[in-house]
């Protein structure tokens, strides 16, 4: 039997959904963090919400590699970033 996936996990997508971001987060900070990964395209912040963002890659494999590498990355001491695949 395969290991159970968390219920909240969406199927693989080329767009990542970031949560638990600190108030001072901006597109430049996230771009610098994610552009080290192949296939990075862009960061989109949600107007009026500092705590969530979307990061787009060329494909699902590249997005998954970035998600796995940066899951739990602390932008500040108190904010461990949560990364999931965006809903399609």
From TrEMBL:
Cite the InterPro entries for this sequence.
Answer: Nucleotide-bd_a/b_plait_sf (IPR012677), RBD_domain_sf (IPR035979), RRM_dom (IPR000504)
User: Which residue intervals define the domain RRM in the entry?
Assistant: 14-88
UniProt-listed SMART domains: RRM
Record Gene3D superfamilies: 3.30.70.330
Pfam families, A to Z: RRM_1
Any keyword RNA-binding? yes
Keyword RNA-binding among UniProt keywords? yes
Q: State the species of origin.
A: Cebus imitator (Panamanian white-faced capuchin)
A single MF term (Gene Ontology):
RNA binding
Q: Which UniProt keywords apply?
A: RNA-binding
- The protein's name: RRM domain-containing protein
